[in-house]
Amino acid sequence: MEHKELRFQRLLSNDEVTNGEPVYLFNADRFVRNFVDLQTEFRKIYPNTRIAYSYKTNHIPGICKLVDTLGGYAEVVSSTEADLAYYMTARNTGRVIFNGLIPGKYMADILKFDGKVNVESWEGLKCVLENAEKQVKIGIRIGEEDSRFGFLESELFKVLSKITEAKQTVAGIHCHVGGSRSLQTWKKKTERMLRIARDVENILGYPLEYIDLGGHLFGRMDEELKKQFGDDIPTFREYAETVATLVRDTYEKRKSMPQLILEPGTALIADAVSILATVQNVKIRGMKRVATLDVSSHDCGMIADYKNLTVENISAPDLKSDIPIVICGYTCMEEDYINREYMGRLKTGDRVLIHNCGAYSMSMKGNFIFPMLAMYMVNDNYEIQEIMRERGQLSDITARCAIGGRRCAT
């Protein structure tokens, strides 16, 4: 990897390609490292581990296709995402895992072609059983007592009975626990799922094919962002040593061990995307300065709501200031914060790089005030490889709209 200043110079020279507009930069090298390293750490301990990328976290087709190239599965939660996964996997529906809340015939279609569906409600189970055209293998989502998702443990016997009465098979169990990403949380949920798996197998009389532990892992991040999360930030290796070891010790004497599935999104994509933006103005407000960029916190993802994203001034690197700058977005809302206490220097026209913007940014932004940013694939040295998405246009807003019964023209 080149020295930072050289990489910054290359970024500035890319303005001929990007037209000086704000853009997303997807570091494909970093994403591949994240995927391979996470999978490798788990497979060292439990070889039958599979990574399923969470499409909802960032569903840009080029990223989803890269996952497929790496041998990863697609974790989807809607019919739209299922259709995208069907396209990205070249119609290999067997590499699709559905965990959505809205029942539909497409759930049975995924199972028909050997995909995985983890039903989480009575309506979802009924939909699958009524639409199944052949014998299928169904997954069951297990929820916590205080969660709105999945079946409770107390409902499991009835769920298993319904599936058995319909002469269908239970393939596996699934959970996804939000909140804490700590090792203790992962240890607790893994132990719980292994216990439930044992109980389910005892009731059914046959072994499960998979145990799906969902996502919600910490990923890699720069030191400035990491310190805002405290001391308990596990590495991929530490997650594997905690989780995969428990699964291995449970099944090591079994000839056919169940597949362990992880569904990371943020852990893979967050630090693989940065935003290249420009300072529009800097104002003095009391004892602080306020800088406005040509992007908003909505472009950066949900993390901007509660953390200060790392910002680097690539026009004048390493210039420090004793007066904090509040870096804001372009919206008409006071609390459009990207960094609330930036301690560098900024002036109008400076180009800045905002890090850790890959998770829940593009997939949630829409065309609020300004259209969606373009995205370019870069390598570790910020050399542009290809365009992944063009900048949004007015037609994205008007194309499917009508006024007085007539389609809008742009």
TrEMBL record:
<dbReference type="GO" id="GO:0009089">
    <property type="term" value="P:lysine biosynthetic process via diaminopimelate"/>
</dbReference>
<feature type="domain" description="Orn/DAP/Arg decarboxylase 2 N-terminal">
    <location>
        <begin position="37"/>
        <end position="270"/>
    </location>
</feature>
<feature type="active site" description="Proton donor">
    <location>
        <position position="332"/>
    </location>
</feature>
<dbReference type="GO" id="GO:0008836">
    <property type="term" value="F:diaminopimelate decarboxylase activity"/>
</dbReference>
<dbReference type="InterPro" id="IPR009006">
    <property type="entry name" value="Ala_racemase/Decarboxylase_C"/>
</dbReference>
<keyword id="KW-0663">Pyridoxal phosphate</keyword>
<dbReference type="InterPro" id="IPR000183">
    <property type="entry name" value="Orn/DAP/Arg_de-COase"/>
</dbReference>
<dbReference type="InterPro" id="IPR029066">
    <property type="entry name" value="PLP-binding_barrel"/>
</dbReference>
<dbReference type="Pfam" id="PF02784">
    <property type="entry name" value="Orn_Arg_deC_N"/>
</dbReference>
<feature type="modified residue" description="N6-(pyridoxal phosphate)lysine">
    <location>
        <position position="56"/>
    </location>
</feature>
<dbReference type="InterPro" id="IPR022644">
    <property type="entry name" value="De-COase2_N"/>
</dbReference>
<protein>
    <recommendedName>
        <fullName>Orn/DAP/Arg decarboxylase 2 N-terminal domain-containing protein</fullName>
    </recommendedName>
</protein>
